[in-house]
Amino acid sequence: MAETLLEVKGLVKHFPLTRGIVIKRHIGDVKAVDGVDLDLRSGETHGLVGESGCGKSTTGKVILRLHEPTAGEAFFKGRDIFSLSRKEMREARRDLQIIFQDPYASLNPRMTVRGIVSEPWIVHGMYDEAERRERAEALLERVGLNPEHANRYPHQFSGGQRQRIGVARALALDPSVIIADEPVSALDVSIQAQIVNLMQDIQDEFGLTYLFIAHDLAVVRHISDRVSVMYLGKIMETGTRDDIYDRPVHPYTQALLSAVPEPDPVLERARERIVLEGDVPSPADPPSGCVFRTRCWKAEKICADEAPELIDRGHGHPVACHFPELIKVLDVPIEVS
Amino acid sequence: MSDDLIEPHVERAETIVEAESGGDIEAIERAASLWSDAWRELRKRWIFWIAAGLIGLFTTMAAVPQVFVAPSPATHDPRECSLRAADGTFQDRLRPSSEHWFGTDLQGCDYYARVIYGARVSIVIGIGVIALAGLIGLALGGIAGFYGGWFDNLISRFVDVLFAIPFLVAAILFLNVIASDGGRGLGHVLLVLGVFGWPTISRLFRASVIQAKAQDYVEAARAVGASNMRILIRHILPNAIAPAIVYSTIAIGGVIAAEATLSFLGVGLQLPAISWGLMINNAQTRILTTPHLLIFPSIFLSLTVLGFLLLGDAVRDALDPRLR
Amino acid sequence: MATSIEYPALRARPEVGDVLLEVENLSVEFHTDAGVVKAVNRVTFNLRAGETMAIIGESGSGKSVTAQAIMGIVPIPPGVVTADAIRYRGSDLEHMSERQRRKVRGDQIAMIFQDPLTSLNPVYSVGFQIGEMFRVHRGMSRKEAKERSIELMDRVRIPEARRRVGDYPHQFSGGMRQRVMVAMALALEPTILIADEPTTALDVTVQAQIMEILHELQEDNNMGLILITHDLGVVASVADSIMLMYAGSVMEKAPADDFYASPAHPYAHGLMKSVPRLIHQAGRLDPIEGAPPSLLNVPPGCPFNPRCPHTRDRCREEVPALRPITGYVGQVACHFAEEVRRG
Prior knowledge:
- The complex is a heterotrimer.
- Helix content of chain A is about 30%, strand content about 25%.
- Chain A is built from eleven helices and twelve strands.
- In chain A, a hairpin with a 5-residue loop joins strand 11 and strand 12.
- In chain A, helix 3 crosses helix 4, helix 3 runs parallel beside helix 5 and helix 5 packs parallel to helix 6.
- Chain A is globular, with a radius of gyration of 21 Å.
- The mean pLDDT of chain A is about 90.
- Chain B is mainly α.
- Helices cover about 65% and strands about 0% of the residues of chain B.
- Chain B has 13 helices and no strands.
- In chain B, helix 3 (about 45-65) crosses helix 5, helix 5 (about 110-145) packs antiparallel against helix 6 and helix 11 (about 240-265) runs parallel beside helix 12.
- Chain B is elongated, with a radius of gyration of 25 Å.
- By secondary structure, chain C is of the alpha/beta class.
- Chain C starts with 6 loop residues before the first helix and ends with a helix.
- The longest helix of chain C has 18 residues, at about 205-220.
- Chain C has helices at about 5-10, 65-70, 100-105, 115-120, 125-140, 140-155, 160-165, 175-185, 205-220, 255-260, 265-275, 315, 335-340; strands at about 20-30, 35-50, 50-55, 80, 85-90, 90, 110, 190-195, 225-230, 240-245, 250-255, 325, 330.
- The chains are: A alpha/beta, B mainly alpha, C alpha/beta.
């Protein structure tokens, strides 16, 4: 029975909007994350999907306390990580690491690759110089790089290789959980698969649990055990991978799945697209009640009055909607020729 | 997703490594840090070599003026001046000759020796002021940029106030007040110039620090548990310092000129200090009769300032694409 | 060979099937301090009225530079553009004067880019920028231009166009801004529209909308549409033909349905196998090993050879020409395409 490693409850992160230079007046908030519940079970890959601005990246960073939460709780291996002191948090970080999206910005251009990968050990006072060298080279090799290049600088590597360096860095402290923030979005298509495979390979070997944050639904389907769908700072639907992809009940999930193009013209032409009207509202001024209601074809008065809770409404997995309905979006009727 | 045209990997292409399988196309290149790349770029530029030559010349002159004075047939001590020669003739205001290469000044001092020794003041002040201003500017700018909030507010407003004060007016006021004749020395001038020099450096550095702070690799360091001090020194400083370096190099030239200006105006160094500015001051009313008194210190001053300006230019070009 | 464009003749709307663009052996090099970048290598294709061609490639493939060369906006120097021919409706584009080129650009051949935020001027209203096309190229008055702008905004389905015509780019969402770009591009009813990664910066729910609009507008006007992208999926339903580029060269050219059903080039194969599918699930992803080469150092012979699972000696020595192969409708640049196809 897989234990729950990370439990997030009611996570809120608001970024204040201010006006003025010398005296700043608080005129509002960007509600990037507005009440998110999430849990991670040991050994799984939990995909967190959503489009840009939905707050998925912020969620990951707040869990790591790279931003301080506005409200909510997060329990990592039973400990309340939001109440840890700086020193205690530092210790906790050994077990909870991150892979960043942009391979060009996430590595210090003035440090050697060896230095980048060894930094976690230096920060935590682990190993001596010689051992660090050895371990750094071993890690580089494990992620598919030539250890002889350890003295080179990031700009001497391609995007895919830099991302591997990022993976190596995340592995250095032997964490239990890695939060992967859009790890393949910035890579070429033919390289994405390499990194996805790498992450899957090392997952068993290093005993890792992933929170895989992405907007690419196809990649998430491929790698995840469970999936949560985010929109405007809230979770719309969550469940096992098959729950979400084969049995979606939230209109946003359905629209999202419907919009993803497949490289298959015959299939594409046979598909019925759910087209959403309108724009994503600004997170500084989200709609009342259900945040999705302004674009939802089912919206009724109750949707404006009452924000639906994320609970199981009889479909086998939690959904935040007053009118959930199963539409098997990905079941496409194809004429058999 | 960056595409075509001139991408980053084109500029770095000579050092891209194919480390994956299928790597018989491996380009075996030495590790190249951004600094060593910049140094290579710098060495390619002829402006750099001219600047280096000039600066090298004048710095050596400042350090060991004796070496330069040695070959001169006249007295080697710039302060040993006599109005009359041994045979009783007046020695003042002589034209340049084989005996006195740059002629003599109003007191009969050998001008060549004085001009050579004048380099010391300029170089010392130039480098000293920038060192002082740099230290203060980097520290305050770094704190303001990195910590933000009230620190930033306080420091930035203070900087604004300093910017609002007109430099020359304040310098003159300050130096005149401190001035009693003879009481004003190198230290005072250094202080005044230093106080007005650091705001620009701090602003520049603050801006680069803010930019560097927003980069993912800083967040990555935080995620690993690095302390603020470590982040500032290992991550932010090396990546934010380039614009400050460029400015400081050029500013050395500016400071040297500023000292000369102050001395020229009579509020900088005073006799018996040997400063090109002072010499120019003394020479100004006699341009027609004794032009050599003006020409030589002016040329030396200009060349020294030019050297630093050119170096700053070359450094800026070399660091440019790597300024981030 | 006409070197000046006679407007009356070319203003006539093309019929479906008319050849709009002929590109023969187009090559673009950039001469930089670090060396010569061979961005585009002997690209050849035709575009007909009513046809949608998708140029697919990853970064460094040369797809954007190809479009820029056709538009005549490659910076020269350091760029050097050579071609046997670049003909627009029979007229030679390559040797046209800059002035004539500019007349063609925007008016007859329009282009939209990836990032509408940086392509639109933030200090002018959206209506003003669309209207500019009419004022400058058609000599319309401000009032007329504004009316036409509103019409266009309606056509690209920007809601409440009349009210929003005076709004500024930052007041629109990404998807809406891209529609504004499309409106601007279409203002002068060009015969060819080149869209360079039009949906890459947009969310997936918005991508479909933009592709639909482009498709509709193309059908209305019998336009030739060139879609440049790295996303195999986004063009699957709208493309008539596919041109696959890698490291500056064309690897495969085929009708879309045939290409997707069963591509011939090993690179195309590799791509298809490495892309995770939403609907057809793969077991493990099968990536292409290695990485795209630096354009300063394109491998000799076939540029894909270091990464190709089928590579032989000949691949390293001889550059494969784009040729038709038996059992396939399209053209492939591979020495052993037939063998690879047989399995």
